[in-house]
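Ticket closed. Logging final result for CHAP domain-containing protein.
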Amino acid sequence: MFFGILPLLAACGGGRSYHGSLQCAPYARKITGVELQGAAYSWWYQSRGKYYRTKRPEPGAILVFRKTSRLPYGHVSVVKKLQDSRTIIVDHANWEAQRIDHKAPIIDVSSRNDWSLVRVWWAPTGKIGIKRYATYGFIIPNKS
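Final structure:
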């Protein structure tokens, strides 16, 4: 029997995933209490009618990334703090393979400042990554 957070971070569906066993969705579920399952990108659709969804970040919100060839299961990050109108600070798992990142910046690079396109902190380089990632928006776990 396992104790602690590691068994909660096992891949969705019981198997290993694209980046191994530590996954963003189980991590986000553990720290927010949302009752959503499966691939991270599917959380946006699953949350409809169950949780409040918005294009504006707030502490505790879950940013849902779209599925892409680079993110075949999408991604989710949990907002810890708003730094300014274009920057949030998040905690998330498996952005860097098999690692939990705390206090990682994400920058809104969308033309309308609607958080539909972002760049994410990449710890190995110590700076914001150059790739842009499309997102759906934010799920607010404590509002419906």
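The CA atoms of residues 41 and 116 lie 13 Å apart. No further action required.
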